[in-house]
Amino acid sequence: MNSPLTPPLDLDMPCPDPCPEVAAQLLQKAGTYLPQDMLDKIFRAYQLGALAHQGQVRNSGEAYITHPLAVAEILADQRMDGEALCAAILHDALEDTALPRSFIADTFGESVAEMVEGVTKLDKIQFNNRQEADAESFRKMMLAMSRDIRVILIKLADRLHNMRTLESKSVESRRRIARETLEIYAPIAQRLGINVVKTELQNLGFKAMYPMRYQVIAKQLANQPVLRREAMATIEARLAQRIALENIPFRLVSRVKGPWSVYSKMRDQHKKFNEVMDVFGFRIVVKKVMQCYHALGAVHTLMKPLDGRFRDFIAIPKANGYQSLHTLLFSPLGSPVEVQIRTEEMDIVAERGIAAHWIYKNRGAASSNAQACAQSWVNGLINSDDFALPSLEFLENVKIDLFPDEVYIFTPKGEILALPKNATPLDFAYAVHTDVGNHTVATRVDRRLVPIRTKLLSGQTVEIITAPSANPNPNWLEFVVTSKARTSIRHYLKRIEHEDAVNLGHRMLDRALELLETSLDNVSAAQLQQFLSDNRYPRLEVLLADIALGNRMPDQIARALQPNQSSLLETDTPIVRQEEILINGSERGVLTFSTCCYPIPGDDIMGYLTAGKGVVVHRLDCPNIIDYRKHPERWVPIAWDRRVEGDFRVELRFETENKPGALAKIAAAVAECNSNIDSVNYKERDARISVMVFCIEVKDRKHLAEIIRRIRRLNVVYSVERL
User: Angle 711-714-720 (CA atoms, 0-180°, nearest 5)?
Assistant: First the structure.
């Protein structure tokens, strides 16, 4: 659109009629299934939209109202209700014109106003960049979807028409819009089962994103050898003849994969065009569910099925409500041919998804099931912890959740859970319940113990073994794929980190107050509350966590709380002589063990407060201590507790004989001492000697000494020293 926001509207002005032919075409389509009173409302919406957008034009030069009308026409093709068509015509009015929301609500009803508001971008709010604005607008749209699923149908129709008319945009804009379409809107259409929209969005996005690749593949599809086309016609005739022998009423449709679908398969499976086997396929549509299985038997007697390539989505529907039988058959072509078998109702739901609720509203449960699945998915996003994340992170999680394929997993009781492709037993555990996931220690798949990062396959039975003492591990985030699992793990780790930070911050503030010969208990509640209020801290715990994370200095806080006390903090007493805070290794959320000196239990250590990182632990003989002495106010007196938990990294330098097997001998010696090797780096190497640096895990200095003694006994090791 070229023109700026219009001035305040005079709603008493005569309504213009800038494109009567387009409006008439819309009303004609809507008139095939809507009553006259609703058609009058749609025409009124057109008049109001034309008035609001008067003077505005698209980049193509057309009157802007042609775009909302085209969006409404796309929805009319899907037989959407009159309210949705009115909202589609007015979907840009709040964003680009001065039309008040109240007038829309008064004229067309509150539901229409809410739908219009749901697809309106947040352009009037200032954001740091376009990506953040788009992400926040997307979050707003998802919230509106949870109240009225028609919002996303309007948005998809809006995006579809924009993609159809993308030529007037700059190359940069075309690529940006195409990428967003392929990454977000086409997957959403797929997730909601709206196949007819998904396919067109994908192909249009592909054409705009990679025009040359699109042209090559489209040309290849159009120029398939005549022999292959004749063979396909023969197969179609044989299929029709065989099913007719069973006296099954049917409709047989041939299909060809779209350019994007072929390209995706070539890219993901590293195949050439000629290696994509299922470019062509057939769909058999029957009347009843039992006839699907009857037709399947007939098809299998005609051509042999490929082993393991039959999928029953009727018994186990996809997450978007899709139902069909899929089988892959050997054909006279010498390549497999896919056949899909479904009922008429299933076919409409497969093509229209949630839009089938309005097309097929009163005739069965499939359409209602598709809408229920969609509503459940949207509500799950809105009610999850992901929704509270920053907008960009929320959008990235939604992208991950828009998976194209699912696997169907059985519980030990025979219940079915649908999970995304590449899901692990840990994803399954969190899908069952958050507490089950948090306390997972092992898993059985088909009664066999497997690692929790194993990728699951459809039809497997998964059993989760839990223990009350087990807790999430940060490494779990590397292989879980569901948003629920990721969010639950992050939530737990953040809670633990916060608790650790509060505990450590409390101890640090106590030490600082002791130097003022007082304690936190002696600070009056009123004085403490005044300090928190002045510094915008909602609770004491937040202040203590900030201290532990290095964002506030404990001595400064102590002076502010006890301004009249005599202070040892103002003397030159070395901080290492003060009473020390004992650490036991469980404070990993707020303690960072430096990689310049790798401190381990038993070493003399000191802590250095770094903003955002908290306390960084160093050895007292660390070469960087000289620099840290310049800022004594950031020193934290710490020492090891009697009992220390966990493993700690340390670096060892080896001089070894340069011959085969030397590295293996050292690794075996390390393993015999119950230690893990994190990394190995070669520093020097000649014909006789190799110099290597190992980073290994140890429990304390005693454990390290044991490892060094064991390695020194090896005949291939000349020397070993700790760095």
Answer: 45
Which pLDDT tens digit goes with each residue over 234-275? 888 888 888 888 888 989 988 777 888 888 888 877 778 776
Q: Nearest-CA neighbor of 547 among 584, 593, 581, 594?
A: 581
Q: Is 96 assigned a catalytic role?
A: yes
| 96, 136, 401, 427: the active-site residue | 96
pLDDT of residue 212: 92
> Class for domain 648-722, per CATH?
alpha beta
In sequence order, the β-bridge partners of residue 252 are 284
Q: Which residues contact 520 (CB under 8 A, 6 or more apart)?
A: 506, 509, 510, 513, 561
Superfamily covering domain 20-164: Hypothetical protein af1432 (1.10.3210.10)
Whether 572 shows a pLDDT value over 50: the answer reads no
Fold annotation for 377-480: Ubiquitin-like (UB roll) (3.10.20)
* Candidates 95, 345, 401, 546; catalytic one: 95
Predicted pLDDT at 73: 92
Contact (CB, 8 A) for 244 and 298: no
Show the tokens assigned to 215: 């042209």
The tokens of 6 are what?
């219009």
Domain 219-367 top-level CATH class: alpha beta
pTM of the model: 0.60
Distance in Å from the first CA to the final CA of the chain: 65
Active site includes 95?
yes
d(CA 277, CA 270): 13
Residues 442-464 have a mean pLDDT of 86
pLDDT(386) > 60: no
CA distances to 79, 84, 349 from 361, rounded to whole Å, are 10, 15, 11
Instruction: Measure CA 158 to chain center.
Output: 24
pLDDT 10s digits, 268-326: 777 787 767 667 788 999 999 899 999 999 888 888 887 777 888 888 787 777 888 98
What CA–CA distance (Å, rounded) separates 52 from 90? Answer: 9
| Rounded Cα–Cα distance for residues 436 and 439 (Å) | 5
For the chain, the domains span: 20-164, 219-367, 377-480, 490-640, 648-722
Looking at this protein, which amino acid is placed at residue 556?
Answer: Q
CA distance 343 to 349: 10
User: Phi, psi (5° rounding) for residue 446?
Assistant: 55, 45
Angstrom distances, CA of residue 157 to CA of 110, 390, 686: 21, 27, 68
| Section 601-611 average pLDDT | 82
Give the sign of the dihedral formed by CA 131, CA 132, CA 137, CA 140.
Answer: positive
Tokens standing for 235? 């197969």
For 162-180, letters b (16+ CB in 10 Å) and e give: bbeebeebeeeebbbbbee
Alpha-helix residue ranges (DSSP H) falling in 516-598: 525-534, 540-548, 554-561
CA–CA separation, 341 vs 296, rounded Å?
7
